[in-house]
Amino acid sequence: MTTTVPPATGEPGSAESGEAAGYRWRWAALFVILGAEIMDLIDAMVTNIAAPHIRAELGGSAGVIQWLGAAYMLAMATGLLTGGRLGDIYGRRRMFLVGAAGFTLGSLLCGLAQSPEILVGARVFQGLFAAVMIPQGLGMIREMFSPKEMATAFGLFGPVMGLASVGGPILAGWLIDADYFGSGWRMIFLINLPVGLLAFAAGLRFLPESRSPHPLRLDLLGVALASAAGLLVVFPLVQGREHDWPAWAFVMIAASAAVFGLFGWYQSRRAATGRDPLVVPSLFRKRAFNGGLVTGMVFFAGMSGFMLVFNLYTQIGLGYSPLKAGLAGVPWSVGMIFGFGLAQPLLKFGRRCFQAGTIIMMAGAAGVWFTLHLEGLGVTPWQLTPALVVTGLGMGLLMAPFFDLVLAGVEDHESGSASGTLTAVQQLGNAFGVALLGTVFFDLLGVRPTGASFENAMETTLWVVVGMLALTFVVSFLLPRRAREDQPSAH
Length: 491
Fold this sequence. Notes:
Blueprint: E1 2-4, H1 19-58, H2 63-90, H3 92-112, H4 116-144, H5 147-155, H6 157-178, H7 187-190, H8 192-206, E2 209-211, H9 220-239, H10 247-272, H11 287-317, H12 322-328, H13 330-343, H14 351-375, H15 381-406, H16 415-445, H17 451-475
Antiparallel strand pairs: 1-2
Helix pairs in contact: 1-2, 1-4, 1-6, 1-8, 1-11, 2-3, 2-4, 2-9, 2-16, 3-4, 3-8, 6-12, 6-13, 9-10, 9-16, 11-15, 11-16, 11-17, 12-15, 13-15, 14-15, 14-17, 16-17
């Protein structure tokens, strides 16, 4: 493995020119990588807050609201399948910089969009370059740090996720309400320009160049098949409702299953002929891994869909401003941060920790339903706080052991493919959830929504979320009881 270290900043022979300087640039590089993670995490959720304002200005159907999130997540899901390989082949720092530049350009295109179609296309552009940028950072961390330091480095990802989940909706709401320079919702994308340029400049200065001595070859046909399969299920879920569920919607969903099957056959064929598959076929013969994919798909679909619907309900149904809607979701994020912390001494219980989190989440979601049912359209953020904290607490307990549990039954030579596949399925689940639960919500809302229809749509959607969590609990019995003690971090 070849790694080029940026020059030390101290004078030759000084304390700054040796180990201390190397220590400093490693941690500077880590903060560049974390900054990119924050950009990605925030951009994945800001359209949940901005969607009503975007639609009001640009027009389009209700499906546009779903596509603003689903397009980004679907593009990232398929891009992640090959993003890491690009770094292995062409250099991780180089591809990080390409990803950061493309992501920043995509943000500019989003901010300047004059139609919903152009904005959705720009979101796809953003998602593809995020999928190029993010995997490079994880690869560089594994090379820069010793095993002891790596645990500390990866340990920072939890607080970063918490910071993004708390700050992202608040930042989006504040920028929209502030309406700087008359930009309205556009500022949620334009703010990425200075941040992206700073990430690019800091990446040039601090990130090491590295690549794999034996990189896997690209599988563009595999990426195309996976992309087509994902689109064939998300597109009819979003657009089918608006066309009164025509036959082609169900044909596309059935075709999605066939294309996923074709993708699996092609991966096996590619491996059998000595070429590099996107996904190691032997993974699909492991019950724990398959169970993890199903569990992850159902869980992340339920959560991403609920976040979209909750933000739409608070703004369109309850009349909250964007900033107030962002603040209303903070208890969920705070609960999740506490859940992550509480889970650390409980990780030794493995699957039981995961299942306890699922039950607590179900109780929290049911509590949100009860609060809305009791208070109706007059509900306040303070009244929603207890149930949202419980929901977030369960989510933290659930997510903390999830990735390591799924990867517990994976062999060492399969771990790279398994980790990449699991992350891609997470994003695909997010896109699927936005499409599915958004469709349930808008379908129940009707063409001319009333207060009663808003209440009915939100309460029914919550019961769907509870059902998805119950299914998550059942499927979780396919997971191993515990993660391997010698397993590296799954981040």
